[in-house]
Every structure is written in C-alpha cells, then in structure tokens.
C-alpha cells in the first residue's frame, strides 16, 4: 500500500512546491508594490504601471528563452550581445549611403523586411554556435555563451564603429518601435503573446515537459528516449531569435543601431528568472515565475530612479534586495520540504 501511495505524494509535493514559489513571490511583489505606492507618490497610476511593463518587456522577452534553458540545466549569457548585434545589423542593412567622409553613413539600403530577416538569420547562426559548442562539444554553457556574447557585441562594435548608426535610415525604420494598439506598445504586446505561448508550451506540450526531464537528469532522459541534444539545440536557437527580435525593436524605438544597446540585459533577465523561482541547476521553474520576478525588478528600479539615488547606490541596493529575496525564497522552500 505504501509503495502505491508514495509516488503520488511526491508528485503532489513537486507541483505544490512550484505553486508555493509562485504564490510566495507574488506576495513579495504585492509588498514591493504597496511600499512603492507610499515611497513614490506618482507610482500608483495607470500610466506608471504601463511604463513598468513597457520598460521590462524587453527583459521578459529575453527571459523566456533563458527560463527554458535554465529549466533544462543550461545557461545563456549571450542574449544582450545578440540584441545589440541584431539592432546594429538591422540599421546597417536599412541605412542608405549618404555622401560623407564619415564611415557611419554608409549602409546597404535594403528594405525593412529583408533587413529584419537577414539580421535574424545572422543571430540565429550565433544561437546555433551556442548549441554546437554546448551540445556537441560538451563545453560548459556559461563559458560558451560568455564567448558568444563577446562575439556578438564585437560585431556590433565593428559595424557601428563603437558608436551608433542613425544616419540615412528610412522613415519606416521607426514603425516597429512606434507601433501601438491603444495604450500598449509593440514590446508589451509581444511580451503578453510570449507569456501566453510560453505557458502553453510549458504546461500543455510534450516538449515543455521534456525540458524538466532533461534538467532533472539528462542521462535518464536519454535512456527514456528523449532527444536531449536536439531539444537543447532548439532552445538555444529560440533564445537567440527572441533576443535578436528584441534588439530590432530597440533599434526601431531609438531610430538607431547602438553598439551599447541591451548592455546588462542578460544579467537582469537571469536575475528575474532566478528571482521567479527557476533553479539554476535545472529541473524546476516556470514562465509565470519569470513574469513575477521581472515585475519585482521593474518596481525596484522605478523606485530607486524616482528617489534620485546615484547609479552606483542603485546597483548596491538592487543587488542586496535581490539577494535577500532569493535567500528567503530558498529558505522557505527548504523548510517546507522538511515538514
């Protein structure tokens, strides 16, 4: 009798842990929100909340790929570099040649759609490079993606000459960045669509469930018939494409391809993912947790900016609060599992 009931109990406990993490972090989010409403008088407004979603939408779109990879037991630190690379290439491909001695004024003069496709393709190749080194050559994903992050941002620096490409761009270059549906900009719309699609994949598909099996025990997953290498390779390519499209939207928004775009986004996306309860050793996590973690980061950043704290102090305060939140989250989960 005992052997029949124990697996069922374990399954319930696993599902309960995920729900427990999500509810705990949602409670933290509500606490941060209430404190922000008192500390920053203008915070509690429809426009203020929309601004947080708009600012954090880029982080969350990148974070979807990072979350899936972390669940499978892998890292991707190349997302910020890929975003910068795609934005600069998009600008370079669209930029018309302007009579000038300045090298920043010469591009290929392509139409918007083929420029987007070509930029995405180049970044897809970087994602494929990640997959080859991690999956085929068995090199640690942290090392590989740090390397490809440098390669991607290096390409952006070379093409933009360490600056930005903002001369000779066509008028419709700004279309994606300025597109809105009511009060919602395109990044927020894509963020919402990305969350919905990611949740469906995570909860309702075999591919989503296999990510958890791979992260929990990749060797056991192989024995059970899961094509681990193929699954992880797909995740790296999807992560690169999500980052590349984020970079294109950023370039369109600022009407320039900037070599410094998305600087530090890989850190924020990783922190939001872990803050939302995703395990860095694989096998546990959720996109819903990513959303909660991203909003916590957004509220924290907004409050620190509104209070006028220097950037150096903001970094320290953000790091301390995040560390406390993650440690408290882990402590609560460990205590719960011991009961």
Structure description:
With 339 residues, this protein is mostly helical. Helix content is 74%, strand content 2%. The chain contains 13 helices and 4 strands. The chain has helices spanning 2-39, 46-71, 79-94, 112-136, 141-159, 175-178, 186-204, 206-216, 218-223, 228-254, 265-275, 287-306, 311-338; strands spanning 164-165, 180-181, 184-185, 257-258. Strands 1-4 form a two-stranded antiparallel sheet. β2 (180-181) and β3 form a beta hairpin. α1 (2-39) runs antiparallel to α13 (311-338), α2 runs antiparallel to α10 and α11 (265-275) packs across α12. The chain is globular. The two termini are 22 Å apart. The model is unreliable at 1-15 (pLDDT under 50).
Q: Which labels suit this protein?
A:
mainly alpha, 339 residues, disordered N terminus, 2% strand, two-stranded antiparallel ribbon, 4 strands, two-stranded antiparallel sheet
Give, in spatial order, the strands making up the sheet with the most strands. Answer: 1-4
Care to count the β-strands?
4
Question: How many strands, which pairing sense, and closed or not: the largest β-sheet?
Answer: 2 strands, antiparallel
Mean pLDDT rating: 87
Question: Segments where pLDDT lies below 50 for 5+ residues?
Answer: 1-15
Based on CA atoms alone, the radius of gyration comes out at 21 Å
- The tally of helices reads 13
Class derived from helix and strand content: mainly alpha
How much of the residues is beta strand, in percent? under 5%
Distance between the termini: 22 Å
SSE blueprint:
Blueprint: H1 2-39, H2 46-71, H3 79-94, H4 112-136, H5 141-159, E1 164-165, H6 175-178, E2 180-181, E3 184-185, H7 186-204, H8 206-216, H9 218-223, H10 228-254, E4 257-258, H11 265-275, H12 287-306, H13 311-338
Antiparallel strand pairs: 1-4, 2-3
Helix pairs in contact: 1-12, 1-13, 2-7, 2-8, 2-10, 2-11, 2-12, 3-4, 3-5, 3-10, 4-5, 4-10, 7-8, 11-12, 12-13
């Amino acid at each position: 009798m005992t052997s029949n009931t124990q697996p069922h109990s374990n399954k319930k406990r696993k599902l309960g842990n995920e729900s427990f993490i999500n509810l705990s972090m949602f409670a933290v989010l509500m606490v941060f929100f209430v404190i922000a409403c008192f500390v920053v008088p203008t915070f509690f407004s429809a426009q203020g909340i929309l601004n947080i979603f708009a600012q954090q939408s880029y982080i969350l779109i990148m974070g979807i790929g990072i979350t899936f990879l972390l669940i499978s037991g892998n890292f991707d630190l190349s997302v910020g570099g890929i975003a910068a690379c795609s934005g600069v290439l998009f600008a370079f491909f669209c930029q018309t040649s302007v009579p000038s001695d300045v090298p920043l004024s010469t591009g290929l003069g392509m139409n918007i759609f083929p420029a987007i496709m070509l930029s995405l393709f180049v970044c897809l190749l970087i994602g494929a490079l990640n997959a080859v080194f991690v999956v085929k050559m068995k090199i640690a994903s942290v090392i590989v993606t740090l390397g490809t992050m440098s390669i991607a941002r290096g390409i952006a620096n070379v093409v933009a000459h360490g600056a930005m490409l903002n001369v000779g761009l066509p008028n419709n270059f700004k279309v994606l960045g300025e597109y809105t549906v009511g009060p919602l900009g395109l990044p927020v719309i894509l963020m919402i669509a990305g969350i919905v699609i990611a949740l469906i994949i995570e909860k309702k598909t075999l591919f989503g469930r296999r990510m958890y099996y791979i992260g929990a025990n990749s060797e056991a997953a192989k024995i059970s018939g899961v094509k681990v290498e193929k699954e992880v390779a797909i995740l790296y390519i999807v992560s690169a494409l999500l980052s590349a499209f984020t970079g294109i939207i950023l370039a369109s928004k600022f009407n320039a391809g900037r070599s410094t775009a998305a600087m530090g986004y890989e850190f924020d996306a990783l922190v939001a993912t872990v803050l939302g309860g995703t395990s860095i050793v694989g096998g546990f996590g959720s996109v819903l947790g990513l959303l909660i973690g991203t909003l916590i980061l957004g509220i924290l950043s907004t409050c620190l900016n509104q209070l006028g704290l220097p950037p150096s102090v903001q970094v320290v305060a953000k790091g301390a609060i995040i560390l406390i939140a993650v440690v408290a989250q882990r402590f609560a989960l460990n205590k719960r599992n011991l009961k």
